[in-house]
Design brief:
The complex is a heterodimer. By secondary structure, chain A is α+β, with helices and mostly antiparallel strands. Chain A folds into four domains: 3-92, Ubiquitin-like (UB roll), CATH 3.10.20.740; 126-270, Alpha-Beta Plaits; 278-439, 3-Layer(aba) Sandwich (Rossmann fold), CATH 3.40.50; 441-494 and 532-575, no CATH class. Chain A is built from 17 helices and 23 strands. Chain A has a seven-stranded mixed sheet, with helices on both faces. In chain A, helix 9 (319-333) links the parallel strand 16 (309-313) and strand 17 (338-340). In chain A, helix 2 (77-92) crosses helix 3, helix 8 crosses helix 15 (498-508) and helix 9 crosses helix 16 (518-528). Chain A is elongated and about 85 Å long. The two termini of chain A are 22 Å apart. Chain B contains 20 helices and eleven strands. Chain B has helices at residues 22-27, 32-38, 42-52, 64-69, 94-101, 103-117, 131-146, 154-158, 180-188, 216-228, 230-233, 267-274, 309-314, 333-347, 353-370, 376-389, 397-411, 413-417, 431-434, 439-447, and strands spanning 80-85, 121-126, 165-170, 211-215, 244-251, 257-262, 265-266, 284-288, 297-298, 306-307, 323-328. In chain B, the strands form three sheets. In chain B, strands 6-5-11-8-9 form a five-stranded mixed sheet, with helices on one face. Chain B has a four-stranded parallel sheet with strand order 3-2-1-4, sandwiched between helices. In chain B, strand 8 (284-288) and strand 9 form a beta hairpin. The radius of gyration of chain B is 24 Å and the shape is globular.
Chain lengths: 576, 448
């Protein structure tokens, strides 16, 4: 292993690595625009010029392989001068429209301008002008003037999106980016170019001009769009989700997420929500109090034999919620009839991130007991039981259960149909009692992805229920070092995670479970369910996910590159 | 005895009529040096070229034999030879003469080089603007194919087991394609962006395979070296840069053109004797000795400057492609530099930041200097921009634009000072805002 010295720090690193990687992994941030660990090296921005002793010219750290005995300076006078020169060149034709730019606040160019730029401009000429609103595809808009021609998006389209439609056109300072004639950037991962663009040249057509980043809070979550469980950050302002963006997790999604996940997994949180518990009176729903709804459900369940009652868990719900439901079914109601609805779409699967299972937690739900015992009914038998009248009460955690005419007619004959729902669906429309459910963005819990990775996430949107835990988490400086992200603003919805609802129902029946937080359930799961043994939320966070059955020997996550974070990114921060 | 009366050896362009025709070329001993090469071991040929002291004629003067020795041995993957005939540096037009007058000499050089390095495919890359010369070379290659001098049939013609395919490729017209790694990308059909080095072409070249890139004139010297022997060749001209040079002389001279002379002659004699001096007997204000990206030399500093790599280095310049541009006393130097930088701005490929942004900036400031809308500070700024480009780019085009700017301004500063003003009187403080038609009204409103 070569040993090199960077700024006086002796570093031992794997051979074949570039200087910039060796530096970053050891907490030395070499400023750069075009380099990205997942993309090929282009070496065009020249921002990462460093001095190598015994080499006459400055070398770019992104394309210089480490060699034993190398002595690198990333901050001496010569390097600083070169970096200043590059910043000056990048800024002369840049429109400097930060006040209206989406990227402002998380812009590499902006941050480096503060850190490495000159205070005053020496450029007193007319700037070059380029096209400012070029749709590269249905989701991505390009501003040629903001572009610094780093080619990250081109390389992404070629290498990750596997849709090589982007190219540079023209020459010199007229260079701009365009799609090849007759093509557009519309691959399922296209919007990742917005994240990796180091400036505001590529913007999301869905998000652009909606919010300043410092007005938003970004909490860690998991995309519920499929069983990959891509790590995401949920951008929230005034208690409304404005965008989702991928969060680096080399064990799960690396740096990316797909566009359907990014665009499809937050609008249902913002819109058309079930606002309060609803109880059917004759043919109409009436809002009720939580207690009234609990009483109604408990009273009806008491009139039925356990074999006449069936539960359907949800692969959209957390492990904790499904665990609580299974415990309720078996211990409180005493029925073995519990299963879940599969949501499989083979056409959604690809060979990068997306998998056919369109739910985030099938494996987790199964592991915690949402599966029929030998004596219990599986989903098909439950549905058949409903249709043939053998099942008289159905408790649905999954409001997306498809309802055909036959099932709708059968639902009408049920004594009790309880549905946990965040939006009104055909299943919810047929219910006797609807509980307003918290979406993934409003609750804490764990999902288990397609590879058995147990991942913990926290709420991003405040509800009446989670206000206390959110307050505890959010009363701190945000990532911009300010307290002014507006998570406290906006309306709070009255929705609850299923484990709380189920616990309340159990309590009405005289079972006092005493779970205070989602974490209490997880602790119990970690004691009782072998694959979760030894796991804690803290461990899941530290290791960025732990595989089922490996709670005693979790896999380290290694170095994590965050494209929009200028703080030194070190292993020490999450040393494992 | 003046230079024009001396009988210098004409090794590359001998005075033989219709030498571009295969029959004439063969009648004058053509392709016999390849036959001779086949009697030698490849390593011996490389040693012979090393012994000759031949240095690349494309501008960088890199020792050719050494370059060849960088090619990996063995045949585990294909290797390629690229012939750089892009000749896009302003003031350079000597390779064109080889295409026109002695294309088979180059082709024979390609065969010898290919044999020496174990290469079986060569690409002759010729700039797009050279329509006519592309045709001439294509015809010469076709003729050689037909005669069994290239291609699979050369085994029958010459014996041995070696054969070579030669492809003529026409560029699409960009200066940057003369940069060897841009040339490779262009050849592959990509945007001609220079590649980040390392890896160097000898390891990863065209189509990712080991590649040697040689200038046209360089390869034309190879049969000559085999004929004379490396030892004898190394005695021609300057010791450290031996051989004859094809010098393209242009600008304010009575007889512009390409002259083949031994290296190391006095530059002034070349201008005054060979090229017939400056029209009207005017004084020389400045000379660019090797194509426009090389540092300019003041007219009053020409005495004693020798025309070879070392001589020009001593004079603070470089030989480049040997394109000598002479400027008489009436030349408007700032205007000349503005035009030159316009070229580099236009031709900057735009890949890396300093050149992409810097060349345009240089031209904008130089335009102001040329039109009298600048101050002395702007001259300092120009030098500083040039310094900021130099050494920080992927390829040498950065230097190509930075050198003429810096050296022309520092060496002929008085020419620029004569064109700038002590201060600029602007209607409003900001220069760009001052260009607005309403600027004077704004200024009046403020003063009221």
């Amino acid at each position: 292993m070569p040993t090199i010295t960077i700024d006086g720090k002796v570093i031992e690193c794997a051979s074949g690595k570039m200087i910039i990687e060796a530096a970053l992994e050891n907490g030395i941030d070499v400023p750069h625009f075009c380099w990205h660990p997942a993309l090929s090296v282009s070496g065009n921005c020249r921002m990462c010029l460093v001095e190598l002793e015994k080499t006459p010219k400055l070398a770019i750290a992104c394309s210089t392989v480490v060699a034993d005995g190398q002595v690198v300076h990333t901050n001496n006078e010569r390097v600083v001068k070169a970096r200043e020169a590059i910043m000056e060149f990048l800024l002369i034709n840049h429109p400097l429209d930060c006040p209206i730019c989406d990227e402002a606040g998380q812009c590499k160019l902006q941050d480096y301008a503060f850190e490495h730029g000159r205070t005053a401009s020496r450029f007193s000429e007319m700037k070059e002008h380029k096209d400012k609103r070029v749709p590269l595809g249905p989701e991505v808009m390009f501003d040629g003037e903001r572009c610094i021609s780093c080619s990250r998006c081109i390389r992404f389209a070629d290498e990750i999106g596997e849709q090589p439609v982007l190219t540079f056109v023209n020459r010199g300072d007229h260079v701009t980016i365009d799609t090849f004639p007759g093509t557009q950037l519309d691959n399922p991962y296209a919007m990742n170019v917005v994240d990796i663009c180091p400036v505001g040249a590529l913007t999301s057509r869905d998000f652009r001009f909606k919010a300043r980043v410092w007005d938003m809070s970004f909490n860690d979550s998991i995309c519920p769009g499929c069983a990959r469980g891509c790590n995401i950050q949920v951008g929230v302002r005034n208690n409304e989700i404005l965008r989702l963006e991928p969060r680096t997790n080399m064990k799960v999604n690396e740096y990316w997420m797909c566009d359907p996940g990014r665009l499809g997994e937050f609008k249902y949180v913002n819109e058309d929500r079930v606002a309060a518990p609803m109880v059917r009176e004759a043919e109409r729903f009436a809002e009720s109090s939580w207690d009234e709804a609990y009483q109604r459900v408990t009273a009806k369940l008491r009139t039925l034999r356990p074999a006449e009652i069936a539960f359907v868990g949800s692969a959209y719900a957390t492990c904790e919620e499904n665990y609580a439901l299974a415990k309720f079914a078996r211990e409180v109601v005493g029925t073995p009839n519990i299963d879940l609805v599969p949501h499989s779409d083979p056409s959604f699967a690809d060979n990068r991130l997306r998998v056919a299972d369109r739910t985030p937690n099938t494996r987790g739900a199964r592991e915690v007991g949402v599966a029929p015992d030998k004596s219990g009914l599986a989903l098909d038998a439950i549905i058949a039981g409903v249709i043939h009248g053998r099942i008289k009460a159905l408790y649905l955690l999954d409001h997306t259960l498809p309802v055909n005419d036959e099932l709708a007619a059968a639902f009408a004959k049920l004594d009790l149909l309880v549905v946990h729902a965040w939006n009104m669906t055909p299943a919810a429309e047929a219910a006797h009692v609807i509980f307003p459910a918290s979406t993934y963005a409003e609750k804490e819990g764990t999902f288990v992805n397609v590879n058995g990775m147990v991942q913990h996430f926290i709420p991003a949107v405040v509800t009446r229920e989670n206000e206390r835990i959110m307050g505890m988490r959010m009363s701190r400086l945000d990532r911009f070092g300010a307290e002014n992200d507006r998570w406290t603003h906006g309306r709070r919805r009255d929705a609850r995670p299923a484990w709380q609802i189920v616990q309340s129902l159990a309590k009405v029946s005289g079972f006092n479970w005493g779970y205070g937080w989602s974490e209490d359930l997880f602790e119990e799961m970690a004691r009782k369910i072998a694959p979760f043994r030894s796991m804690t939320y803290e461990m899941l966070d530290t290791y960025r996910g732990v595989e089922l059955g490996r709670g005693d020997r979790p896999t380290p996550h290694g170095f994590t590159y965050v494209a929009h974070d200028l703080r030194p990114q070190t292993l020490a921060e999450h040393e494992v | 005895m003046s230079l024009s009366e001396q009988n210098f050896p004409k090794l590359i362009i001998p005075p033989i009529e219709n030498l571009h025709r295969l029959d004439v070329y063969r009648a004058n001993g053509g392709y016999e040096m390849y036959r001779k090469a086949l009697t030698m071991q490849p390593g011996e040929i490389i040693d012979e070229v090393k012994r000759s002291g031949l240095r690349g004629r494309g501008g960088a003067c890199f020792p050719t034999g050494l370059k060849w020795s960088f090619m990996p041995k063995g045949n585990d993957k294909p290797k390629y030879l690229c012939i750089n005939g892009d000749e896009s540096e302003p003031g350079s037009f000597k390779d064109r003469l080889i295409f026109e007058a002695n294309p088979h000499l180059m082709i024979e050089g390609i065969l010898i080089a290919g044999y020496a390095m174990g290469i079986h495919t060569a690409f002759i890359y010729i700039r797009g603007e050279y329509h006519r010369w592309v045709r001439i070379v294509e015809e010469a290659v076709e003729e050689a194919y037909a005669a069994g001098l290239i291609g699979p049939r050369m085994k029958e013609t010459f014996g041995g087991s070696y054969s070579m395919e030669i492809v003529v490729h026409k560029g699409a017209g960009a200066y940057i394609c003369g940069e060897e790694t841009s040339l490779l990308n262009s050849l592959e059909g990509d945007r001609p962006y220079p590649r980040v080095k390392p890896p160097f072409p000898a390891n990863v070249g065209v189509y990712g395979m080991p590649t040697t890139i040689n200038n046209v004139e360089t390869l034309a010297n190879v049969p000559v070296i085999l004929r004379m022997g490396g030892e004898a060749y190394s005695k021609i001209g300057a010791e450290k840069h031996p051989g004859t040079l094809l010098l393209g002389i242009s600008g304010h001279v009575n007889r512009p053109g390409v002259y083949e002379v031994p290296s190391g002659l006095p530059l002034l004699d070349i201008i005054n004797d060979l090229a017939g001096g400056v029209p009207g007997g005017k004084a020389i204000k400045a000379v660019i000795p090797g194509g426009t990206s090389m540092p300019i030399i003041r007219g009053d500093a020409l005495e004693g400057v020798m025309m070879d790599a070392e001589g020009l280095k001593a004079a603070g310049s470089a030989i480049g492609t040997g394109g000598i541009i002479v400027m008489d006393e009436d030349t408007d130097i700032p205007h000349m530099l503005r035009r030159l930088i316009h070229f580099y701005h236009h031709e900057s490929c735009g890949q890396c930041t300093p050149c992409r942004e810097g060349c345009g900036w240089l031209e904008k400031v130089l335009t102001r200097v040329d039109t009298g809308e600048a101050t002395s500070e702007d001259l300092d700024l120009l030098v500083d921009i040039a310094n900021n480009i130099e050494g920080n780019t992927i390829c040498a085009l950065g230097e190509a634009a930075a050198w003429p700017t810096r050296f022309t301004i520092t060496r002929l500063r008085e020419e620029f000072e004569a064109k700038v003003k002590p201060t600029l009187s602007l209607p409003v403080l900001n220069r760009v805002h001052s260009l607005r038609p309403s600027a004077h009204e704004e200024a009046a409103a403020v003063s009221n």
